[in-house]
Amino acid sequence: xxxxxxxxxxxxxxxxxxTVKRWIAEGHLAAFKTAGGHYxxxxxxxxxxxxxxxxxEPTEGQPRILIVDDDTALLESMVEALTWDQAYKLETxxxxxxxxxxxxxxxxxxxxxxxxxxxxxxxxxxxxxxxDPVMHSAKILAITAYPEREAGERIMQAGADGxxxxxxxxEALKTEVARLLGTLQE
Length: 186
Known about the structure:
Elements: E1 3-5, H1 6-13, H2 17-25, E2 32-33, E3 39-42, H3 43-52, E4 64-68, H4 72-83, E5 89-93, H5 96-106, E6 110-114, H6 122-131, E7 139-144, H7 151-157, E8 162-165, H8 170-181
Parallel strand pairs: 4-5, 4-6, 6-7, 7-8
Antiparallel strand pairs: 1-3, 2-3
Helix pairs in contact: 1-2, 4-8, 5-6
């Protein structure tokens, strides 16, 4: 669980710190005080507040991409390909559990998600992300090395927005990322 300061909440909502303190005083945003007298808000409470009061995620800056894959060599290749032109802010995870934790803290615009991982697989992660009222609008690009005929269909039914079979060309990945983020140049 992550704890946010009033300054972090103010920045995320594009308001002043006194406004955040007023929300707390009026009972709109639950917080607790530290021993030093400073307010802290849990990440879960902030997400509840954003949903309840329809406060959108900030859209300024670079699009955020989270890549979740247990193949570290491929993970590194995708990171290198997507950071080459410095258009995206990237985070990585090597399994579904870590991926879901980072979804909650990094709030990606796009999740590149391997389907077959130990523990929590890509199908489960996809369904959880799409069921989350705060994150359901995030795009999901599913990838897999397993040539199951129904894998693409199943992941699209689970809520994915795109699908690539491994091995894929890195240019194909970059094109699909741009398409899903709405930045594809025709």
